[in-house]
Amino acid sequence: MTGPDTMLDGSQPHDALIAEAAGVLRPHRVSDRLFGDVACVLVSGSGQHHHGVCIDTGSGTGFCAEHAAIAAMVTAGEYSIASIVAVWRKVESGQLFVLPPCGRCREFIRQIDPGNLRTRVILGRAEARPLADLLPRWEWPEPLT
Fold this sequence. Notes:
Blueprint: H1 15-22, E1 28-30, E2 33-44, E3 49-55, H2 65-75, E4 81-89, E5 96-99, H3 103-112, E6 120-124, E7 127-130, H4 131-134
Parallel strand pairs: 4-6
Antiparallel strand pairs: 1-2, 2-3, 2-4, 4-5, 6-7
């Protein structure tokens, strides 16, 4: 059965990017911390793909996979994000999950470039929303009169 977003081969529009992000997953445990268990791929405005993984630290100095991918993009001299997706795989069952960016990541994406409010945030195999929809009230408020 195919819906309006199903491709002719039965895949969904975001399957390729989700699979690319899943290919970056390489969880590694150090003591009670887990590194690389969330992975991200973003497509820059020029079409380049940048990857990142999360780093969990005990002192709060770690960062999300989106931050790592954005840092790779900025290192390459780009700031515009066309699409972004992050994934996590449940070790016990092997199930793959698409994770929406946390609030800190949403704000980080916005601050890298004003045009990133239009970034397609992939939320599932056939679901994506512009960042502006996920980051309400981002505008600076009007002064009180």
